[in-house]
Amino acid sequence: MLKYKIIALIALLCLYPPQSQSFDNENPTVFITGSNRNIGLEFVKQFS
């Protein structure tokens, strides 16, 4: 029975995705973790 409840919950979540704010093409936001060294630092340099 629990299996069917979980499947129903997943189906409901797929049918009603969360509402998001509009995307700004001029100033996109990039979230980079580990940006203090190595490849993360290079990503920060490229995106800034």
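^ that was protein a. below is b, sequence first then the tokens
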Amino acid sequence: MRRPWRRLALVLPGLLVLAGLTALRLADPTPVAALRLQGFDLFQRLAPRIYDPDVPVRVVAIDDDSLRRLGQWPWPRDRLAQLVDRLGRAGVAAVALDLVLAEPDRSAPARIAELLAGRAAPPELAQLARDLPDPDRDLARALERVPSVVAFAPTDTPGRMPLIKASFAEIGPARQGLGRFAAAVPSLPEFEATAWGNGSIGAPAGRDEVLRRLPAVALLGDALIPSLAVEALRVAQGAGTVTLRAAPDGPGLDAVRIGDAILPVAPDGQFWLRFTSDVPARQVPAWQLLEPAPAGADPAAALRGRIVLVGVTATGFGDTVLTPLRDRIAGVTAHAEALEQILLGGSLTRPPWAAAAEIGLLLALGLALVASWRRLPAIVSGGLAVLAAGAILAGAFLAYRQAGLLLDPTLPALGLLLTHGAVAASAQWRVERERRAIRAAFAQYLAPSLVARLTEHPERLRLGGEWREMSFVFTDIAGFTSLSESVPPDRLVATLNAYFDGVCGAVLEAGGTIDKMVGDALHAMFGAPLDQPDHAERAVACALAIHRFTTGFAAARRAEGMPFGETRIGVTTGGAVVGNFGSRHHFDYTAYSEAVNLAARLENANKTLGTPLCVSAATARACPGRVFRPVARLQLRGIGAPIETMIPDELCPVPAGAYAEAHAALRRGDPEAATLFTALAADSPGDALVRLHARRLAAGAKDDLIAVD
């Protein structure tokens, strides 16, 4: 009777994951929705909409060049009137201004007259200003002559209601669920009165500020309002009515008909945008239409019969949106892309059944995976889970590319992998429980990292070794022999235990392995038994942590009357043979090489140099993110070539630039070095390294080569 329960216990975590993911998807919190949208964005980046140059939509861009040639924004309204008239003469189908012209032109005669009156100007001058042409009137007349659309910005703050030119026909309860706004910031009444249409430029972005959908229609109070793209298409087609069709299976909008075009939308009136990459051919700079064209050239000819949207694309103006392609484009470009999509068809659609299908797929595949766990090896089951997740991703992408369907692959794909991971973790936990006895036995003798490696791969427990590039840290306490003779044994043991507790903690914190402790010395290594590409950086960080701890520890002991010496540290990097050395009855995981011996020699060299920490040049070169100072070239007994040694910059009180200048002079044998180091020693008497070089130079030394026993 126990085996069925054991099997259930094994797969229970997977079943709980499936249940939790299903509940999470039904609740659909913000992180889940954000992950789904990121998946849809990835589809667009992989396969953006291909721009069709024949689509009758263009943007007249008030770009940086136009502002440079024609003056800063906002332009006088008579210049906009010239632009509208120019487009009208070119025979465009419609002109839509992606501009909210909510205030009178600052150069309008009435405003100039008010300014003059406020400054006590002669009445004749104020009257002359009133007689000037009114640029707002010029633009209003231009809008009346050309099929045109002006814009308003919906808002939730009180404001004037815009004049809606479109009429709407509703088939069924279509307006239920539409987005609703309280009011709007409209263009001036004279522009609304003469323009042929009036459209909303509201472009609600998501929480991550990415524009993925646009409302085709919305509610302003209780009134229906069209988007700028819908209104521009209505005016261009000469249609008076926009038809709203309710969904056949319930209330809420299903499609919007504008003349001959039918746009599928969601119940809230919004439709998904499928963006193209940056296409310069979509835009015509405004200056090309307002300045005289070269002989034989007519930039406006290419706009004949097209719907033209006019907007600001110049740098520094806030009307920009972030797209799923991770591009930031001007708002007018987004409206143009929406209009292109309406005309071309092939809109993206999130089907009503999508969520149920995604949850069903997750449950079906997840339960199949759980049921097959005991029948298949873990690696096979994991491989099948990965293949199934890949198939889900590929299928969703294919549905997007071929049919414009937005199906979420993240829930079933990640859910499948998480389910497999939960069951695999449960099985691994059982295996780990069986290994705990082994860990408990070996943990008393070996470093935790070595225990873990040997537990995973017991076949690697052999007397042989392997060659690795590693880093080594050796420490020693100055004057320990005299200390041990002057302190009672029980106090000495307690002090050393506290000392090694801090030093070993620094080693383990840096990811090192404690090789051995001999008397007052500690040997640590980095880069084995586990691979650590940054072993040199870890070793230096460990050495600095040891220095910080031991400095405070020694000061505290000396305050108690114990003559506890400074800890000297040596760090080096190089190749070494590392492995289990010893007999079958007793072995020691350690490393042997010249680099190991050199670390011990560098630790001892601190006694001569007066430094707390000595680092080999090989270690310093392997730490490009740290700053080191050259100490000296050490001529070590038994080693032919001098050893270049360094010290971390943070341990040196002398300014780096001054020290570098002095040491460079010392290295090249410049007599000026004595003067420089003498001055530095006077300024920083606490810098032992500077004092050393000053003394050596005073005694007749010519360079930085120092012999160390």
